[in-house]
Structures are given as structure tokens and as C-alpha cells.
Design goal:
By secondary structure, the chain is of the alpha/beta class. It has 8 helices and 8 strands; from the N terminus they run H-H-H-E-H-E-E-E-H-E-E-H-E-E-H-H. It is globular and about 45 Å long. This is D-aminoacyl-tRNA deacylase.
């Protein structure tokens, strides 16, 4: 019931036609804004790029749970130290580094594959002083840092990624699925503030499991995160064109 409500509440909007999308991209592009605005990608498939790292159990465990679902195929060769997998409109990219250090994976994926990345989703651990268990969703960037500051977790001072417009629907779906798996009230479902990288050009969000190593390794939390992503794959109208 909740999923159908969320689906109906999501407007179908192509963010690539939004003026702020092109303004953000123009800050990192040598092309003039006018040429960006007139660029169309109708002949290329638009895909969602989900990124996980093998160095973080809160990242690789949900990714592995998702990849255990039916329909996955090996993806294109991206680079030697990364693996990719494809399933309908979703691309999973696995690497072994910190989740915040591989900048512009969206642009690099487009250059290698010819596909157009519509959004980027990162899986990661969450840390908090409270050490309380939490499942979080948040945009990324370090707009609070000034020129000359050294970002402790990636990004560039003053920079913020375009927030993924599906953050709202996803956090509602996350809460619904977490409740169905009896993780609530043990786990708090939270919308977190932005505070780290990596840098991207496309709308981006992080999905995180927190807040200590014991919780990062929780397979039931990993299954919930995977189920959120799987539900979206199986519901192609779930704001997929945002």
C-alpha cells in the first residue's frame, strides 16, 4: 500500500532538462551552458549507478544481497580493479577503495560505456557519536568548507552534489521495509546532513548502515537495504525517470 502511494506521489521529471542540473554541470565542463542545454541523449539508455566497496561490510553486504537477486549479468569492463553488474536499468559497480575517494564515477562510466547515468547511489557505513543503530539516507558534498580547507572525507571545499530527487520516496520506502523486517524501533531511520564526498556530476545519495562495526555487519540490515533497491528495480515507474 505504501509503495503504491509513493509511486503515485512521484512526478515523472527528466532532471537533465532542469536548468539547475545544467548550471551545476557547467561549473565542471568546458562546454558553454547553451550547448549543455541543447544536448539530448534519446539514443542512449539512462541508467542508475549503484557503487559499493569491498572494504566496508555495510557497503558490500547490501550489494551482495542485491546481486543474489535474479536477473544479474556481468557488466562491461570498467577498469581492472573494479567489477560491474547489470540488471535492467541498474548498474552495480564494486571497488576496493574507500567509498569517498573515487571521484566522478558517473562521468567515467558514461565515457567507458556510452550509457547516460541518471543518478548515483552509494552504499556505506554510518558513524555517529551516539553509536546508536541507524539506517540513513543523505545527499553529499562539503559546502560548509572554505577554500584552503582539507576535506577529511573527500569532495572539494564549497562543493555539493545535486541531491537525488528520490531521497524522500526512498527514505519512506526504507522505513516501510525496515518495519516489515522488525528492525524498527531498534534501528532509527534518519535523513542525514551532507558532509563528505566523493565528487559526482549527477544527482546523488548515500544509503548507510550505522553506527558501529557490529551494526555494519548486520545481515538483516543489509537485506533491508538490498530490498529497497530491489523494490525500485522491480517497480520501473518508481520515480525512475526523475
Amino acid at each position: 500500500m505504501l509503495l503504491s502511494t509513493i509511486v503515485r506521489s512521484c512526478p515523472i521529471v527528466n532532471h537533465s532538462r532542469h536548468p539547475f542540473f545544467h548550471l551545476n554541470r557547467s561549473l565542471r565542463s568546458s562546454k558553454p551552458l547553451s550547448s549543455l542545454s541543447s544536448t539530448h541523449h534519446h539514443h542512449h539508455p539512462m541508467v542508475s549507478l549503484l557503487v559499493a566497496t569491498t572494504s566496508d561490510p555495510a557497503s558490500i553486504n547490501p550489494a551482495n544481497a542485491l546481486l543474489a537477486m535474479p536477473g544479474w549479468q556481468p557488466g562491461p569492463h570498467f577498469q581492472d580493479d573494479m567489477k560491474s553488474f547489470v540488471n535492467e536499468g541498474l548498474r552495480v559497480l564494486l571497488h576496493g577503495k574507500s567509498i569517498v575517494v573515487e571521484d566522478y564515477l558517473d562521468t567515467r562510466w558514461e565515457e567507458v560505456t556510452g550509457e547516460v547515468v541518471d543518478e548515483v547511489i552509494f552504499l556505506s557505513k554510518h558513524t555517529a557519536a551516539s553509536n546508536k543503530p541507524a539506517l540513513t539516507v543523505h545527499p553529499i558534498g562539503v559546502p560548509h568548507l572554505r577554500e584552503g580547507d582539507v576535506p577529511p572525507q573527500g569532495g572539494k571545499p564549497g562543493w555539493a552534489a545535486l541531491p537525488n530527487p528520490r531521497i524522500g520516496p526512498w527514505i519512506r520506502l526504507l522505513k516501510n521495509i525496515a518495519q516489515a523486517h522488525n528492525l524498527v524501533p531498534e534501528f532509527e531511520i534518519t535523513l542525514e546532513a551532507t558532509h563528505h564526498g566523493p565528487m559526482t556530476n549527477k544527482p546523488t545519495m548515500f544509503l548507510e548502515i550505522g553506527s558501529t562495526e557490529d551494526y555494519w555487519k548486520r545481515q538483516d540490515a543489509a537485506q533491508v537495504m538490498a530490498q529497497v533497491e530491489w523494490t525500485v528495480i522491480r517497480s520501473q515507474n518508481f520515480c525512475f525517470n526523475l
